[in-house]
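Regression check, guanosine-5'-monophosphate case 206:
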Amino acid sequence: MKKKGVLLVVSGPSGAGKGTLCKALRQNHPEILISISATTRSSRAGEQDGVNYFFIDKENFEKRIDQEDFLEYAQVYDNYYGTPKAFVIERLMEGTDVLLEIDIQGALQVRKKYPEGVFIFVLPPSMKELKNRIVGRGSETKESLEMRFSSAYEEIDFVKKYDYYIINDTVEEAVHKFESIISAEKSRVFREIEELIAEFKEEQPC
Ligand code: 5GP
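Current build output:
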């Protein structure tokens, strides 16, 4: 029996450093696949279609909603974002671990459809630091910046709906914590025990 991959779902307020954390984790673990979402927002400087996101228009996005192409989708800050379903499910069935970096509404939808996923909430070390990080990115308009910051206050309560939290102070420590979570999750009895029992039983005592 082939072991399924683990679905890692990461959320947290804008400025918590989810992107940096996921990138750093991937550097240590290139075997983890980061799913590429579709979005209707415009690309930022340096972003590439098919690398950071699949940038598509609203009409195309809504067509794909009707075709049930998304594992989850949500409207975040006036734009649609969605996770391509077939690609993610196929990789998990092949045994690849897949990471989704998605907002809270999307994560809660995934939780319903795929409860064996691992749901991780990334927190900033403080709200002051969160604001510094959003401002420091320099990529937002004043309006978008204020929207992201006020949403962050509301979003923090949702940590209760997740399995784990990671305070993203230094990236090294946060990656270490992330690795510990993955390692513990891979030893969960419900994930691997049938395969383990079969392996033990195959072996003949001498
Ligand atoms: P950004 O515009 O900064 O790239 O992303 C804005 C928010 O959308 C972030 O919280 C990010 O995690 C979330 N997001 C990115 N891709 C998806 C997705 O496929 N689905 C959902 N629900 N949220 C997403």
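Comparison notes: Residues 171-186 form the longest helix (16 residues). The chain has a mean pLDDT of 93. No diff flagged against the previous build.
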